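re: that chain from earlier
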Amino acid sequence: MPGCKSCEATKKRVQDVLKDFPSVQFGEIDSLEEPERIESLGVMTSGAIVIDGEVVFSSLPKEKVLRHKIEETMT
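^ sequence. v structure.
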């Protein structure tokens, strides 16, 4: 069974960008395995991006925008 296309695209973009930020940790939350955690974060769409416990993107951002947001959180 194929996975969520939105989730896979988001995961790939995040991992590609994080190659330039080795100190930043990446993790996934499976909505089927951790629905309570998804709900507690307020995630409403698949492929959302959470940084430091806050939903910062509810859809896949452009690489430049994602990179800028990560840089912002590191300062």
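The longest helix spans residues 5-18.
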